[in-house]
Amino acid sequence: MGPLVGESELPEALLKAGKDLLEPHSSTDSLLDLLHKVETLLSNVEQDPIVAVQSALRPSTKALISAGLLRNPDSDVRVYVVSCLTEIMRITAPEAPYHDDHMKDIFEVTVEAFGKLADASSRSYKKAEAVLDTVAKVRSSLVMLDLECDDVILEMFRQFLKVIR
Fold first, then answer.
1. Is residue 100 within 8 Å of 147, Cβ to Cβ?
2. 25: which of 31, 80, 131, 143 fits an S-S bond (Cβ 3.0–4.6 Å)?
3. Which whole number is the average pLDDT over 9-23?
């Protein structure tokens, strides 16, 4: 996917999108559109970004772990949120972007997102595929092991076995 904005406009676009995430949303579709935009912007951020980009990431980083997004009742929204969060993990790797408790919550929702891989026609299948790809690249499973997320790892294997079946 090509960049939505030039490199010089990236901090401003990230800041605006992050602030928009902190606001209430009129519909699930508008929220999914915004999350897709945020993910696209995040995918254009290199690891160890310049200070302006680091600052611009803060609103998104905060919004994505809010209960309204991470624990949203809509499963597609949760997959899109996880897709953004895995991009943030890629950007901050090898450092974790959140405290351990938040990381455990993120991993739970990430593993739940893998369930979308069972239905290639689902709205969030491509996002779940991207999450799996990023989790593999960033080696998030090692962080899961470090945090002793044994239940989450077990559930991840259950999800993969269910998808394979």
1. yes
2. 31
3. 94
pLDDT digits (tens, 9 = 90+) for 79-122: 999 999 999 999 998 888 999 999 999 999 999 999 999 999 99
Structural domain for 17, as ranges: 10-164
61 within some domain: yes
Domain count along the chain: 1
Choose among 104, 107, 55: nearest CA to 86. Answer: 107
Residue 157, CA distances (Å) to 2, 88, 110, 114, 136 in order: 33, 24, 12, 10, 14
Q: CA 139, CA 159: separation in Å to the nearest integer?
A: 18
> In this structure, which amino acid lies at residue 7?
E
Residue 149 has pLDDT above 80, yes or no: yes
31-72 pLDDT, tens digit per residue, is: 999 999 999 999 999 998 999 999 999 999 999 999 999 999
Residues 76 and 115 sit within 8 Å (Cβ to Cβ): no
Which of 73, 162, 71 shows the shortest CA–CA distance to 119? 162
Taking the model in full, what pTM does it have?
Answer: 0.90
Q: Is residue 155 part of a domain?
A: yes
Residue 113 within any structural domain of the chain:
yes
Q: Which residue has the tokens 């991207």?
A: 130
Whether pLDDT at 134 is above 70: yes
